[in-house]
Amino acid sequence: MRAPRRRRKKDARSRDIESVLGFTFRDAALIDRALAHRSYCAEHPDTLSNERLEFLGDAVLGLIVTDYMFAEYPDMPEGELAKLRASVVNSEVLAEVAREVNLGAALLLGKGEDASGGRDKPSILADAMEAVIAAIYLDGGWDSARKLVLRLLEPRIIEGASGPGGHDYKTRLQELATQTFDQLPRYQVRHEGPDHSKRFFATVMLRGEPWGTGEGRSKKHAEQAAARVAWRYLREREIAAPSEQRRAVTTGTDGSPTEADDAGVT
After folding, report:
1. How far apart are CA 51 and CA 23, in angstroms?
2. Which of 18, 41, 199, 246 has fewest C-beta within 10 Å?
3. Domains along the chain?
4. Would you give the DSSP letter of residue 218?
């Protein structure tokens, strides 16, 4: 689904949020609407609130996360999948990721709501995050919305899947690497950005060579993302042909293979 192209000059607020989201809107009116809380609309009757976009964004978000988990965890029972989805698709987590992209600063709020701390209210942030996801879906399509959602939530999904169910990729990789090479994987980690918004980048090494890279909001998340890439490739390699020559493995944001990164989000 694509929104019709419209021309409107973007203000600094719109450009700033586009930069943080990594997505450029063709229809600037969509991002304005996604950021418009009903308190602002009460003071500006000609402005539509983000409530309808929030409704759509909730559905898009749920399907993206469900589709991802269904493909990534083929052995996970339905009950565990439902619990995992609930652990990342909820108002608390959405408010957290909204804070990470500084969404509060871009919100359009009424004077009273703004004065009462509305820019940091979890319910307002969570609703606006869903509305933004819907706006990107309408403007850029499924791939763009999926790329943003996974950039924000994939590390949390991986972390939530780790544990008794055996979906901890570092443990999986360690076991497979020991069986295959009689060697443990090693991780090289670096970080970028200020203390309040650091991003970590990990490379997993086997036999002195890189087998996967990953990115995340913590060292643990980055290592898990890198381990996931290396484990999947090593497992496929061993199943397909144990003697096959290993090809280079690189990844995109939060451990997603670069060949899949063909959406409009940068």
Report:
1. 21
2. 246
3. 12-161 (1.10.1520.10), 169-260 (3.30.160.20)
4. S
Query: CA-CA distance, 39 to 209, in Å (whole number)?
Result: 55
Question: What is the tens place of the pLDDT at every residue in 188-204?
Answer: 999 988 776 678 899 99
Radius of gyration for the alpha carbons in the chain, expressed in angstroms and rounded: 20
Q: Which of these is catalytic: 113, 130, 139, 223?
A: 130
Per the CB < 8 A criterion, the answer to whether 125 and 104 are in contact is: yes
State residue 239's pLDDT score.
67
Catalytically annotated residue among 27, 54, 58, 139: 58
H/E stretch holding 212 reads strand 209-216
How far, in Å, CA of 221 to CA of 162, rounded? 11
What does the block give as tokens for 168? 């901890």
Told to judge if 130 belongs to the known catalytic residues of this protein, a careful annotator would answer: yes
Does 261 qualify as catalytic in the annotation? no
Residue 223 to residues 184, 185, 190, Cα–Cα distance (Å): 14, 11, 11
Paired with 188 in beta bridges are 203
On whether the CB atoms of residues 247 and 209 are closer than 8 A, the answer is no
Cα 80 to Cα 8, 121, 123, 164, 230: the distances in Å are: 46, 30, 26, 11, 24
Which pLDDT tens digit goes with each residue over 113-129? Answer: 999 999 999 999 999 99
* Secondary structure, 3-state, 34-95: HCECHHHHHHCCCCCCCHHHHHHHHHHHHHHHHHHHHHHCCCCCHHHHHHHHHHHCCHHHHH
Distance between CA 33 and CA 135 in Å, rounded?
8
Task: Report the b/e string of 87-108 with b at 16+ CB within 10 A.
Answer: ebbeeebbbbbbbebebbebbb
